Amino acid sequence: MPPRTKFSKEAIIDAAFDIAKTEGIDSITVRKVADQLGSSIAPIYVNFTEVDELKQAVLEKIHDIAQQMLMSQYHSDPFLNIGIASIKFAREYSVLFKDLIMNSKRYLNHVQPSRTNIFEQMQDSTSLNGFSNEELAGILFKMQVFQLGLSVMDVNGMLPEDFNEEKIIGMLESTGKDVIIAAQISKKKIE
Question: Whereabouts does the entry annotate DNA binding, in residue ranges (predicted)?
Fold first, then answer.
């Protein structure tokens, strides 16, 4: 009898992640993960006491991916970089994006990057100098609303056919400038 193949915890999480990114988080089952690995269910239960524990590990992996994308340098402006990372996540992981945002936001808090990291990036942007944390929060919220709508339209095929990633980023950049200019004008009126 040949020796049993051992599966690491990481291999099991990766198999579950592959299911989540093509079928959604709620599609993760012990049987599907075992089938993905080409094994019995035993290795999964050796590493995880229940499927919800495995799902939590997948959510941590998704968080790490989102955080890594957020910290990647897509553009020289750190504020625009935040939006680009979000757009790229939605495009690269469209099933997960739909699952997290549109179908079941109960998982969203588990995967979102830290607001502290986002504010640190915003504070590094020269275009946002002079804004208080409260003002930055308002600017971020407006851009999140726009970026989320843009991402939803993108992953659902609702944008014009010629709207490639470059055009999406251009629209994100011009809208960000508009929001910042409006915030600067509003700030001057208040002062």
Answer: 29-48
Q: Say what the pTM is.
A: 0.89
Angle between helix axes 133-155 and 115-123 (nearest 10 degrees) is 110
**8-71: CATH number:** 1.10.10.60
Distance between CA atoms of 182 and 168, rounded to whole angstroms? 21
Establish how many alpha carbons lie within 13 A of residue 100's alpha carbon, considering only the half-sphere containing its beta carbon: 25
**CA torsion, ordered 117, 118, 120, 126, to nearest 10 deg:** 160
User: H helices within 48-132, ranges in order?
Assistant: 51-71, 78-92, 94-97, 108-111, 115-123
Sequence-distant (6+) residues with CB within 8 A of 84 are 74, 75, 169, 172
Spatial CA neighbour of 125 closest among 83, 68, 167: 83
Handedness of CA 59, 86, 113, 146 (dihedral sign): negative
The whole-number average pLDDT for the span 151-169 is 95
**What pLDDT, in 10s, does the model give residues 96-142?**
999 998 765 678 888 888 888 898 889 999 999 999 999 999 999 99
Contact indicator for 118, 70 with CB cutoff of 8 Å: yes
